[in-house]
């Protein structure tokens, strides 16, 4: 493996302690907040935000006193049923699904065409992707808003999906483009020799080879759609909100007792899909993150 | 694509030089037995007709750019004339909303970026020396702070930092000050946001640098060892130069990402102490009165800021690309 494992045996004890300490600390810093919030989401507010003693969040005396058990699902019930968080979840699912599908369809076709053309699109694509990465999406939203009001497009899921796809597209195209470029041209040439049309070559030869690339790109556009707050909170009407702006709107009404716990439960519910995503697709995410760097 | 990139920018530009129409006012004279009174009322129909005719509003040129909410040229000149010394000037500048937002955005960008690079590098070195099985596990948990939505991540931390939460009470205990609240003071709010920024961004530099460490040339390192380089010298003169391109790449990406910092400010509910340019626009856009032209102006100014930040990168990419092609 790496050079550092070579010299492992010769490492002095002090350094070893330092490394373990550092890595251990990082592990705690990275993971602990999530477990803490997960644990706390089953308590009542008086325990999770305890004035008397922080240890109350662990032992939960108030929760036991009020409900008889240390683990309660009240907050989840409140968030999902009472505040209709399920509606936001459905909306999020719709938005993410369509954003990923649309941007992948355009991205694979476009990326393939670009990578097989001789003109140097790559540079302009890269520039467009860079600019879009650099610009706060909210600056664009300001531009979309007035036409959308004028044409009565504001507030619909479809509009938001289109905007998200548009913001995402240069990045998707660029990423897929570089994946396609790794596939040798000989592959589609030999397919054509065997009697495939250009599209058949794409469909039956290139796409099967491309799956890892497509999955990685899809993951990233999913994350963009899922995590977005600026676009969704401004462009969607109240009843069409996705999960992240919905959580933000919980915050606005924290005055009444229990609402904070609704938000905690909602946050935990919104984190679970991401947790699963990392669990199953860790390798693709890491490769996607490093791929851009190694090339650039 | 052109439709969605170029048009919004154009639309933003257009909106930024317009302002909503003033209401059309008419004066009505009411004469009664006790003399005449004049009252001013809004002519609803005329106003609506005017608004329908020109939905953008009336053309005001660059006025919005220079008003108090944005560049505030007049106020800046006045402050400059009145203040004694640079410190005083900056302090007064801080009262103007646009400059306050910009001040925070720049501070955030230029503190978080180097800090996350250093942390990421240390973690990468540490993890790299661990056993294989542990690495996967560590990478899994490292990805979490980065992958969760910024708003969710900041909320999770915010609740812990709350004076009734675990970190908040721990800090109160450490400094034995029961009234200590991170949310109440401007300085501490900034620190809190910067800590969040590092927490959120360090995994990215960790993963990229860790991948870079895997490609480290063995023989260079071995020859350095034979030449008697200490561990620190090996890191300094072999590892860091090898990773340099990656470090620049991360720095660039992070400069851009941190410049548009937005969600943590909503999550930490810290608008009273720290605002960023993105939040500034968001604030104009949301709420009852959508101040479109004001938001558009801030957007244009932000885009200008981004392009100043990005110009060296673009020039470099252009040069690299020409060199390659």
Task: Give a written overview of the molecule.
The complex is a heterodimer of chains A (296) and B (325). By secondary structure, chain A is mainly alpha-helical. Chain A contains 15 helices and no strands. The longest helix of chain A has 37 residues, at 259-295. Chain B has 325 residues and is mainly α. Chain B is 71% helix and 6% strand. Chain B has a two-stranded antiparallel ribbon. A two-stranded antiparallel sheet of chain B has the order 2-3. In chain B, helix 6 (97-128) runs parallel beside helix 10 (186-214) and helix 7 (132-147) crosses helix 10 (186-214). The longest helix of chain B has 33 residues, at 292-324. At the A-B interface, helix 1, helix 2, helix 8, helix 9 and helix 10 of A face helix 1, helix 6, helix 7, helix 8 and helix 9 of B.
Number of strands of chain A: 0
Task: Give the topology string of chain B: H per helix, E per strand.
Answer: HEEEHEHHHHHHHHHHHHH
What CATH first level of one domain in chain B would be assigned? Mainly Alpha
pLDDT < 50 stretches of chain B = none
Give the helices and strands of chain A as they follow along the chain: HHHHHHHHHHHHHHH
Report the mean per-residue pLDDT of chain A as an integer: 77
Rg of chain A, alpha carbons: 24 Å
Largest sheet strand order of chain B: 1-4
| Helical run tally of chain A | 15
What characteristic shape of chain A results from the CA principal axes?
globular
Apparent shape of chain B: globular
The number of E-state strands of chain B comes to: 4
Q: According to CATH, what is the topology of the largest domain in chain A?
A: MetI-like fold
SSE class of chain A: mainly alpha
Supply the CATH superfamily name of the largest domain in chain A: MetI-like
């Amino acid at each position: 493996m790496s050079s550092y494992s070579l010299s492992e045996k010769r490492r002095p004890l002090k350094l070893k302690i330092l490394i373990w300490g550092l890595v251990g600390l990082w592990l705690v810093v990275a993971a602990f907040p999530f477990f803490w919030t997960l644990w706390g989401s089953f308590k009542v507010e008086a325990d999770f935000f305890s004035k008397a003693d922080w240890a109350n969040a662990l032992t939960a005396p108030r929760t036991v006193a009020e409900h008889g058990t240390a683990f309660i699902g009240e907050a989840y019930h409140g968030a999902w049923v009472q505040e209709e968080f399920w509606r936001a979840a459905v909306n999020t699912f719709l938005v993410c699904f369509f954003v990923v599908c649309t941007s992948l369809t355009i991205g694979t076709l476009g990326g393939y065409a670009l990578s097989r053309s001789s003109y140097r699109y790559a540079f302009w694509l890269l520039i467009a992707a860079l600019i879009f990465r650099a610009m706060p999406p909210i600056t664009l939203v300001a531009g979309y808003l007035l036409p959308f009001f004028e044409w009565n497009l504001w507030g619909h899921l479809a509009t938001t999906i289109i905007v998200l796809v548009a913001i995402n597209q240069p990045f998707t195209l660029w990423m897929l483009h570089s994946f396609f470029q790794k596939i040798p041209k000989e592959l589609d040439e030999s397919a054509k020799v065997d009697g495939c049309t250009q599209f058949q070559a794409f469909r039956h030869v290139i796409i099967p080879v491309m799956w890892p690339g497509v999955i990685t790109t899809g993951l990233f556009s999913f994350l963009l759609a899922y995590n977005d707050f600026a676009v969704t909170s401004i462009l969607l009407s109240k009843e069409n909100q996705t999960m992240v702006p919905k959580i933000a709107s919980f915050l606005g009404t924290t005055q009444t007792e229990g609402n904070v716990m609704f938000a905690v439960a909602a946050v935990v519910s919104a984190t679970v899909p991401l947790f699963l995503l990392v669990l199953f697709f860790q390798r693709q995410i890491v490769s996607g993150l490093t791929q851009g760097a190694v090339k650039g | 694509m052109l439709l969605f990139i170029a048009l919004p920018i154009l639309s933003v530009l257009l909106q930024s030089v317009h302002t909503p129409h003033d209401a059309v006012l008419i004066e009505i004279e009411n004469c009664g037995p006790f003399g005449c009174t004049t009252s001013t009322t809004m002519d609803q129909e005329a106003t609506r007709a005017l608004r329908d005719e020109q939905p953008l509003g009336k053309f005001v040129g660059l006025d919005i750019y220079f008003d108090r909410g944005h560049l505030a040229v007049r106020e800046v000149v006045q402050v400059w004339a009145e203040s004694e010394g640079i410190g005083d000037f900056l302090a007064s500048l801080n009262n103007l909303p646009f400059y306050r937002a910009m001040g925070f955005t720049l501070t955030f960008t230029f503190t978080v970026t180097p800090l996350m690079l250093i942390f990421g590098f240390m973690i990468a070195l540490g993890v790299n020396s661990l056993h294989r099985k542990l690495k996967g596990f560590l990478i899994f948990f490292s990805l979490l702070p980065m992958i969760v939505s910024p708003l969710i991540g900041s909320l999770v931390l915010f609740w812990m930092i709350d004076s009734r939460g675990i970190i908040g009470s721990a800090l109160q205990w450490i400094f034995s000050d029961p009234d200590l609240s991170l949310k109440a003071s401007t300085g501490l709010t900034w620190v809190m946001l910067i800590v969040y920024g590092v927490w959120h961004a360090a995994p990215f530099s960790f993963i990229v640098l860790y991948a870079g460490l895997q490609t480290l040339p063995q023989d260079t390192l071995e020859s350095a060892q034979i030449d008697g380089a200490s561990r620190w010298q090996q890191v300094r003169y072999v590892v860091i130069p090898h990773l340099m391109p990656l470090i620049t790449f991360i720095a660039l990406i992070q400069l851009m990402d941190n410049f548009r910092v937005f969600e943590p400010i909503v999550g930490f509910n810290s608008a009273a102490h720290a605002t960023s340019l993105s939040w500034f626009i968001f604030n104009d856009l949301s709420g009852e009165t959508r101040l479109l032209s004001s938001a558009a102006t801030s957007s244009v100014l932000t885009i200008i800021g981004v392009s100043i930040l990005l110009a060296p990168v673009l020039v470099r990419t252009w040069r690299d690309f020409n060199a390659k092609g």
